[in-house]
Specification:
With about 200 residues, the chain is an alpha/beta fold. The protein contains eight helices and eight strands.
Length: about 200
Amino acid sequence: MLNVAVVYYSSTGNVHRLADAAAVSAGKTGAEVRLRRVAEVFPQSQVAGNEAWAAHLDASREVPLAALDDLEWADAILFGTPTRFGLPAAQLKQFLDTTVGLSLQGKLVNKVVSSFTSSAAGHSGQESTILALNNTYYHWGAIIVPTGAVDPVLSAPGNGNPYGVSSVSGNRPGNVSEENLAAMEFHARRVAGIASALKRGFQAG
């Protein structure tokens, strides 16, 4: 069986909705799926100052926190993050920084990985956020699977780019369109399909 981990950070719920859609879609392929959020690293006082941020953190407490074991377990991993000045959110970056030990042991080699993001406005760093995440995957020796630009679902406005699915929230919590969710479902199916084929190939070899 294929193991798929969906690991994400979401402050007000947009990336969470994309991550949940990815997990459901991967599960429909027959994979075993772990949906995991990374820990909040900002002070509670700062979180409490933003009503939407505090509300989402409270609402998502039942989602298990990501652990290094989830990465070692997974054959394929989808990482989700808001765009922050064209870069991944600090919360996800902090989690990725803890993977050094796994990486040095070669335990992340040949993992199939891909990324998705959400930003307040279009053309505000979605592509550079995904490309920045790719730098980590190169060091792992992982296999990056982009969305490409071949499926019609990706042509809908605001559905992202060939690097990975992205949505535009307009700074509204939970503002993810049905088109965005459909693109995310395609993204997860594509990652799971390639990971499954790769796993079969390694086992046969």
